[in-house]
Design brief:
The chain is an alpha/beta fold and about 200 residues long. The protein has a domain of about 130 residues: 3-Layer(aba) Sandwich (Rossmann fold). Helix content is about 40%, strand content about 15%. It contains eight helices and eight strands, in the order ααβαβααααβαβββββ. It has a five-stranded parallel sheet. The chain has a three-stranded antiparallel sheet with strand order 5-6-7, covered by helices on one side. Helix 8 links the parallel strand 3 and strand 4. Helix 1 packs parallel to helix 3 and helix 4 crosses helix 7. The longest helix has 17 residues. The protein is globular and about 50 Å long.
Length: about 200
Amino acid sequence: MSSVSGLDKRLQEILTRPEFLEMRGVAKEVPIFIQTYSSADDDQLRLVVRGVEQHLRKQGLRVKHVDLFELVLQLLEAKGYLDVLLQEEATWSKSDLFDTLQNVAEPTSALVPKLMEALDDAQISLITGSGRIYPFLRTHTILEALQPAMVRHPVVIFFPGEYSQDADGGSYLRLFGTSTASKIENPHYRATNLDYFDIKSS
């Protein structure tokens, strides 16, 4: 069965709730929510997100949908690198290409400020493209760059892999179901896993 089967209805139920939109119970934690799915269902996931976005808009909500890969392309274009990369990519070494992409889209100084600018004036934001920016950018480094004061409305990040937390509070993201997991080192960061969000009792 597809990992996104029934996900559209579930998200429509959760994301339109007043307590979710008003971030009740979040306290001092960053109101970031992670929705995992299988990378094999990436095309279906895009359709689900598009449908959820349309549903939320019909409910009168201000929704922002940002694809991280598209955001990186905007940064490259703004710094004059995009045309050069498109024309000369075949002549660049992998390490030079990797370093250029990492430097231009560095999370703290470039990508996160651009992301927060894109999410301005929203009631809820949907973020896709985590798999498309790998390996030169990793989701956990973006999350670590986010500060609690930056995020003032619920943000849902769609992640093609697994998200888990240890008993000691450590958070881990495992992209594409690989055996290695990236630990989120920011002690202020505790995202809610929407896979375990209880619709009935919440």
